Amino acid sequence: MKPILLKFCRICIALCFFIPFVLFFCDFAGILPKKIQLLMSVQLTPAILSGSLVTIALLLILTLLFGRIYCAVLCPLGVLQDIIARIRTIGNRKQVKKRRYRYSRPQNVLRYLLLGLCIVLLLFGILVPVLMLDPYSNFGRITTNLFRPVVIFGNNLLNELATKAGNYSFYHVTIYTVTAVSFLSALFVFLVVAIMALFRGRLFCNTICPAGSLLGLVSRYSLFRITVDHDRCNNCHLCERVCKSQCIDSKSGAVDGSRCVTCFNCLSRCSHRAIDYRFTPRLKPQPAPPSGTQNLSSDKAQSLQQGRRTFLLTGATIAMAIPAIPTTALTKSTIDDSKLKPITPPGSKSLLRFKEKCTGCHLCVTHCPQQILKPADFAFGFDYFLKPHLVYDHAYCNYECTVCSEVCPNGAIVPFTESDTKQTTQVGVAKFTAERCVVPNRSTDCGACSEHCPTQAVHMIPYRDGLRIPQVTPELCIGCGGCEYICPVRPLKAINVVANEVHQAAHLPTEEETEQPTEIEDFGF
Question: If you average pLDDT over every residue of the chain, what do you get?
């Protein structure tokens, strides 16, 4: 196959995965089918966390055969980096020809240290480093908190313009799921990745990405790889200049297979066909080019640049690992004591299990039709940072809705079965505080919480002077938040859902006997 055609096929396949990814995360109207979630299931980290051995084996076999194809076409953050790097050369043909890359020695100490840290902590159920460094999860947070609001803003603008023109095809959408912490964290990661991509290509993938480091160990032994024909090479260094992985040393003619992402830029730019992608099996990985191939002055300059880069990358990693803000620092006047633990989504089974499975990709956040799933800040500890939890400030969990369990690719929220249904899953129990209720405080009837309870767990009982007050039956409550959402008391509501650390099974409500209609002979007037 011709080199230019090989690169064209790679770009087309990458876009076929990338575009549905972006559209699915930005789909605020629920237009796209849920089956697109299967594309998320082929991501490496979700496959590992969900225990999908078939997907893991398939990705490793593809890497062993063709190199880091996953990083080239399947990883959405990798494709986003390619788009950002390409933006710099749009409209400047001289910049395309010159490019700005050159060979850079691998930072193996940093990349494998971060990989080992992620693996060791993952074995102990600590998912924080994976949450911070996983490419798929970072892409999900960037799309959810940065790109999706732009799409919704465009929709609202079109709605305003269309309404003035008498067209009511659009409707206004309000965003409740983007918090200040989630927006700033997504913006920080996006800026770090964008700066790396603009100036150093796939630096993120080959330095701090654990998925890239893991696949890099396998790609050292790949059967198909980039090779250099020294007889044809005229040392023009063009392949090195266009290599966004900075893994081609044109002086020695060596290619670092652990960092090559098979983008085929080098093949399309070499006019002498000195570099090719061919079947070249070997039992030992290709050694890194010796440092003696460069003169002393360039070696010192490169070492200085590598030291600066390592310092900046380490600093960025430490900055993302900000210590947790203790919950005890919050006073009771600013937080309800019933909200000291997060309410995890139905299907997550327990708080501990959700911490060990969820990487905060925010796919469930974007597809929650009620917009009650919100990313957490540090209030629940550092190990729950950016993970979704149920917030009933403007809506409640629909009694029949199971969307979050249908789209979760990590296995953090499992689909319901006939024996384990949404209607019997108790994520929390409503807690009634009579001192805050309007009935005893204002001597007036309310009953809004009882009217909005789908399971009859909240019902009204006689109080005094003909008034009635709410009472909760814990066995019937599923923690949907209908009572908390509708409660008119502010700022601390009279009825709140207290989270269950381990989800319990609630009783199904009994059907009330239907009253026989009264026969009316006349209208009575």
Answer: 85
Provide DSSP, 281-293: --SSPPPPPPGGG
The residue among 428 and 466 whose pLDDT is bigger is 428
Give dist(CA 70, CA 78) in Å, integer: 9
Same domain, 203 and 152: yes
- In this structure, are residues 336 and 490 in contact, taking their beta carbons and an 8 Å threshold? no
Strand partners for 495: 432
Predicted confidence (pLDDT) at residue 294 exceeds the cutoff of 90: no
Q: What is the enclosing helix (H) or strand (E) of 12?
A: helix 3-26
Candidates 191, 220, 190, 205; CA nearest to 70 is: 205
Both 307 and 345 in one domain: the answer is no
Residues 161 and 270 in one domain: yes
Tell me which residue range forms the domain holding 384.
327-505
Whether residue 482 lies inside any domain: the answer is: yes
Q: Residue 511 has which token pair?
A: 């059907």
CB 428 within 8 A of CB 345: no
pLDDT computed for residue 84 by the predictor: 93
Residue 515, domain member (yes or no): no
pLDDT score recorded for residue 331: 37
In this structure, what CATH number is given to the domain that contains residue 473?
Answer: 3.30.70.20
Is the per-residue pLDDT at 306 higher than 60?
no
Task: Please report whether residue 512 resides in a domain.
Answer: no
**Whether residue 170 is found in the same domain as residue 126:** yes
| Token pair of 15 as six digits | 């876009």
Domain count across the chain: 2
**264 and 223 fall within a common domain:** yes
* Nearest-angstrom CA–CA distance, 106 and 334: 49
Same domain, 461 and 485: yes
Shared domain check, 476 and 396: yes
Residue 522 lies in a domain: no
Per the CB < 8 A criterion, the answer to whether 147 and 22 are in contact is yes
15-41 pLDDT, tens digit per residue, is 999 999 999 999 998 889 888 888 888
> What CA–CA distance (Å, rounded) separates 80 from 96?
18
Residue 459 to residue 432: CA distance in whole angstroms:
11
- Mean per-residue pLDDT for 218-237? 90
Tokens in use for 413?
């929220």
- C-alpha distances (whole Å) from 316 to each of 70, 85, 136, 182 are 25, 20, 19, 17
Q: Are 13 and 108 in a shared domain?
A: yes
CA distance linking residue 450 with residue 476, whole number of Å: 13
Q: How many CB atoms lie within 10 A of CB 487?
A: 23
pLDDT band for position 500 (cuts 50, 70, 90) = very high
Task: Tell me which residue of 275, 264, 267 sits closest to 233, measured CA to CA.
Answer: 275
